[in-house]
From TrEMBL:
<dbReference type="GO" id="GO:0004805">
    <property type="term" value="F:trehalose-phosphatase activity"/>
</dbReference>
<keyword id="KW-0597">Phosphoprotein</keyword>
<keyword id="KW-0808">Transferase</keyword>
<dbReference type="GO" id="GO:0005992">
    <property type="term" value="P:trehalose biosynthetic process"/>
</dbReference>
<dbReference type="InterPro" id="IPR006379">
    <property type="entry name" value="HAD-SF_hydro_IIB"/>
</dbReference>
<keyword id="KW-0328">Glycosyltransferase</keyword>
<dbReference type="Pfam" id="PF00982">
    <property type="entry name" value="Glyco_transf_20"/>
</dbReference>
<feature type="region of interest" description="Disordered">
    <location>
        <begin position="34"/>
        <end position="53"/>
    </location>
</feature>
<dbReference type="InterPro" id="IPR003337">
    <property type="entry name" value="Trehalose_PPase"/>
</dbReference>
<dbReference type="GO" id="GO:0005829">
    <property type="term" value="C:cytosol"/>
</dbReference>
<comment type="similarity">
    <text>In the C-terminal section; belongs to the trehalose phosphatase family.</text>
</comment>
<protein>
    <recommendedName>
        <fullName>alpha,alpha-trehalose-phosphate synthase (UDP-forming)</fullName>
        <ecNumber>2.4.1.15</ecNumber>
    </recommendedName>
</protein>
<dbReference type="Pfam" id="PF02358">
    <property type="entry name" value="Trehalose_PPase"/>
</dbReference>
<dbReference type="InterPro" id="IPR023214">
    <property type="entry name" value="HAD_sf"/>
</dbReference>
<dbReference type="InterPro" id="IPR036412">
    <property type="entry name" value="HAD-like_sf"/>
</dbReference>
<dbReference type="InterPro" id="IPR001830">
    <property type="entry name" value="Glyco_trans_20"/>
</dbReference>
<dbReference type="GO" id="GO:0003825">
    <property type="term" value="F:alpha,alpha-trehalose-phosphate synthase (UDP-forming) activity"/>
</dbReference>
């Protein structure tokens, strides 16, 4: 039986947004009870783990596309043989965990297992390796891995735009298979998951929607994700039709890791442009606030496993590979390339650079040899046959030009070789050349440096301790290798010169560069990387149990809302009850973003809002104010039908109690010479920032950038804020930033002062407010929330006052309550107006 959660996500993947079975129990838009989402679970699956841990220590569940085991069918075709894959990164990373941490692995096998053998294989792997295999049906696997992963995500994440020719449109069936595969992975995780004790670490682009499945079932699980490929710029990523689904799924984790700041920056830019999320830097850590949850952004390049490389070196030392290679290339200077057969590895560019070096520096003809090891392609990538043909043609042509007896400048090794053979090549190479046009990390330079460092226990590796690197600036390891010669691989001439420079460098300089690299690589190995990631994951999850959580949204729009226990949604029943009993009520309302949408073209209030305000104002026990940053003329015109409504304009610089009363100025100072200083500065930024403008008020100047590019506008706002604070340092003004604005206004003006003035006036009349409702949505409204607390402590309000300080949308706030949106604000006000109408 297909589960409800499967239906929701797969329907979304297929684009069938309307075809929801009406007979099924629908999901509520917002769950009203914190905790686990039992009524969202699959009918045929338990919500809790089938195999909870009996230990109180933390456990780690590592989820990757492939398990770190090798599986081989026995020769008699009876059963299977399994062994650890010692070169698997997900196996090596456990060295960074404490010895008492139990580690489980969830992933697929690199072989197909008959359905009749799957139960037995699963049990063997769980018992002997703590591995839980995910068996994907052949049709799903082909579309999932060879289809969506390798033909959609892989090229896109490596900055290749999707083709536009006819017949190349987005294939939604591949996306459906990707979603289905991720769901099957989630089922295997749940089989062994103890949500109270376990950490989950998901790896790479194959499983980017897996977090949504797991977060739906257990809202407090501790879950991280690391992307081992590049993340493209927003201009590239935005071409993906399912772009928001993937972003929102990743935001269901607690920590998202990237190799470089560039990749993280691109991800954050996508979150800003597509989801409206701004990142923050908190004591050196980058983070996103997402519905009350803090998602950490980790920037840490992965390292190599030093022990594994040294072990292979010792084994290689016993073999004859190194002596054979030394004999084969005796008297030659060897440059080495090690790459997968892939369109992004730039192998042909390397061959052309070698040709360029031999042409420009004939001294190397007959001496320099480029050995290019070409590993088999991982899956059915794009244009593989064309790339293979191109490499073969270039190799044949260049060798034909520079061949001599006993010498060919380019040697292609395109048959599979062992790790030991690869290490042997590293040991004889004077330089490693990486010309990838885009690569997530690429650990070949790291491995080369360790091999060239050698070991005192290995005869063939003793005394090397020098190396040179020519690496593309477009690979993930480039920033960490500051002693390398960085090149733009598309510039073949410059790459050729860099190769010449590398093999012409003196031994002393090679040693200095090598020492610098080895010092970094040896201290930032794979154990350091995993230990650092786990440390940040623990820190990010530290307050999980302190917060109350709700699940909201459908399909991949699902997310968990996490709130402080003291910050809760405003209950209609509670506020109505308090409203009925009160004798003196103060109602303070912000305008834009509270009763009027920020992006509305027509900014005047709706007839519904006017009617509700009039009904509230007609109650003699009510004092109702609109407290806004807008000018008094606009507010007076918009609210002209509300005769008894109080208005505080320009954040309280102007105030009137009713329409018949005159405007009061709340600040004594009337000196505005500072405007002549601030306006030219704002004008400079307006001219430089398309979509920005200046609003001149009677008491303030506002620079707004709502229609600008969000990233550029935000950056310009920060610069403008600093600039204005500098030039206005000796003026009696405050420079504040808000939602898409930077504002300069007199120091004594704030909404908090307005609130205090209203409460004091009511107290002076012997009508201390015993009911306060204050609703606002931005930073300026926080002053009102703070003033309410001060008034209560200062006994300006009645001792038994019911206070409801409420922000719009859940966010960090001094308010104790929140409402989801403007519609809920209007609905709440209407319910109070109905009470007043009934009581009159």
């Amino acid at each position: 039986m297909m589960s409800r959660s499967y239906t929701n996500l797969l329907d979304l993947a297929k684009g069938n947004f309307q075809n929801i079975n009406p007979e099924r129990k629908g999901l509520s838009r917002v769950m009203s009870v914190p905790g686990k989402f039992s009524d969202m679970e699959d009918d045929d699956e338990p919500a809790s783990s089938d195999n909870p841990s009996t230990l109180s220590v933390d456990r780690m569940i590592i989820v990757s596309n492939q398990l770190p085991v090798k599986a081989v069918r026995n020769p008699d075709d009876q059963g299977w043989s399994f062994a650890w894959n010692e070169d698997s990164l997900v196996l090596q990373l456990k060295d960074g965990f404490s010895e008492d941490m139990e580690v489980f692995y969830v992933g697929s096998l690199n072989v197909e297992v008959d359905s009749k053998d799957q139960d037995e294989v699963s049990q063997v792997l769980l018992d002997r390796f703590k591995c839980v295999p995910t068996f994907l049906p052949r049709d799903i696997y082909t579309k999932f891995y060879d289809g969506f992963c390798k033909k959609q995500l892989w090229p896109l994440f490596h900055y290749m735009l999707p083709p536009v020719e006819e017949g190349s449109r987005f294939d939604r069936s591949l996306w459906e298979a990707y979603v289905a595969a991720n769901r099957l992975f989630s089922q295997k995780v749940v089989e062994i998951l103890n949500p109270e004790d376990d950490f989950i670490w998901i790896h790479d682009y194959h499983l980017m929607v897996l977090p949504t499945y797991l977060r739906r079932r257990f809202n407090r699980i501790r879950m991280g994700f690391f992307l081992h490929s590049p993340f493209p710029s927003s201009e590239i990523y935005r071409t993906l039709p399912v772009r928001e689904e993937i972003l929102k799924a990743l935001l269901n984790t607690d920590l998202i890791g990237f190799h470089t700041f560039d990749y993280a920056r691109h991800f954050l830019s996508c979150c800003c442009r597509m989801l409206g999320l701004e990142y923050q830097s908190k004591r050196g850590y980058l983070a996103l606030e997402y519905y009350g949850r803090t998602i950490g952004i980790k920037i840490m390049p992965v390292g190599v496993h030093m022990g594994r490389i040294l072990s292979v070196m010792k084994q290689t030392d016993k073999e004859s590979w190194i002596s054979e290679l030394k004999k084969r290339y005796q008297g030659k200077t060897v440059l080495l390339g090690v790459d997968d057969m892939d369109v992004f590895k730039g192998i042909n560019l390397k061959l052309l650079a070698m040709e360029q070096m031999l042409r420009q520096h004939p001294i190397w003809q007959g001496k320099a040899v480029l050995v290019q090891i070409v590993n088999p392609a991982r899956g059915n990538g794009i244009d593989l046959e064309d790339i293979r043909t191109e490499i073969q043609d270039s190799c044949k042509r260049i060798n034909g030009l520079f061949r001599m007896p006993g010498y060919e400048p380019i040697v292609i090794v395109d048959t599979p070789i062992s790790v030991g053979e690869r290490v042997a090549y590293h040991s004889i190479a004077e330089c490693v050349v990486v010309t990838a046009v885009r690569d997530g990390m690429n650990l070949t330079p790291y491995e080369y440096i360790v091999c060239r460092q050698g070991s005192d226990t290995c005869t063939n590796f003793h005394g090397l301790k020098k190396s040179m690197l020519v690496i593309s600036e477009f690979i993930g390891c480039s920033p960490s290798l500051s002693g390398a010669i960085r090149i733009n691989p598309w510039n073949v001439e410059a790459t050729g010169e860099a190769m010449n420079q590398a093999i012409s460098t003196s031994d002393s300089e090679q040693q200095l560069r090598h020492e610098k690299h080895y010092r970094y690589i040896s201290t930032h190995d794979v154990a350091y990387w995993s230990r650092s990631f786990l440390h940040d994951l623990k820190r990010n999850c530290a307050d999980h149990n302190r917060k109350m959580c709700w699940g909201i949204g459908f399909g991949f729009g699902f997310r968990v809302m996490a709130l402080d226990p003291n910050f809760r949604k405003l209950s209609g029943a509670v506020i109505v009850s308090a409203y009925k009993m009160a004798k003196s009520r103060a109602i303070l309302l912000d305008y834009d973003g509270t009763v009027m949408h920020q992006n509305a073209i027509n900014k005047s209030p709706t007839q519904e809002v006017i009617s509700i305000l009039n009904r509230l104002c007609d109650d003699p026990n009510n004092t109702v104010f609109i407290v806004s940053g807008r000018g008094r003329d606009s507010l007076a015109e918009w609210f002209s039908p509300c005769k008894k409504l109080g208005i505080a304009a320009e954040h309280g610089y102007f105030l009137r109690w009713t329409q018949d009363g005159g405007w009061q100025t709340c600040v004594q100072s009337s000196e505005f010479g500072w405007m002549q200083i601030a306006r030219p500065v704002m004008k400079l930024y307006t001219e430089a920032t398309d979509g920005s403008s200046i609003e001149t008020k009677e008491s303030a100047l506002v620079w707004q950038y709502r229609d600008s590019d969000p990233r550029f506008g935000s950056a310009q706002a920060k610069e403008l804020l600093d600039h204005l604070e500098s030039v206005l340092a000796n003026e009696p003004v405050a420079v504040k930033s808000g939602q898409f604005i930077v504002e300069v206004k007199p120091q004594e003006v704030s909404k908090g002062v307005v609130a205090d003035k209203i409460f004091t006036a009511l107290s002076g009349k012997g009508k201390k407010a015993d009911f306060v409702l204050c609703i606002g949505d931005d930073r300026s409204d926080e002053d009102m929330f703070e003033a309410i607390g001060n008034a209560l402590a200062g006994k300006v309000l009645a001792s038994n006052a019911s206070v409801f300080a409420c922000t719009v949308e859940q966010k960090p706030s001094k308010a104790k309550y929140y409402l989801d949106d403007i519609a809920e604000v209007v609905s709440t006000l209407e319910s109070l107006a109905d009470v007043s109408t009934t009581l009159q």
